[in-house]
Write a structure and sequence with these properties.
This protein has one helix and four strands; from the N terminus they run αββββ. The chain has 65 residues and is an alpha+beta fold. The chain has a domain at 26-53. A two-stranded antiparallel sheet has the order 1-2. It has a two-stranded antiparallel ribbon with strand order 3-4. It comes from Longilinea arvoryzae. This is Large ribosomal subunit protein bL32. Keywords: Ribonucleoprotein, Ribosomal protein.
Amino acid sequence: MVPLPKRKLSKGRRDRRRAHDALMAMNLVQCSQCGEMRLPHTVCPNCGHYQGREVISVEKEKKTK
């Protein structure tokens, strides 16, 4: 026999339990090329490098005053 819940959990109770997952801080690492903070295992949005090589060519925007 497999244990089963006696009653259906309401959506509110379910969502309140799951709400704590979103409160955790994002795990950021520093890019080895430009030093910008980025998510791990992703291409750097600033310079376009991943694991030491350029994967995406990112155009630098010219700053105008």
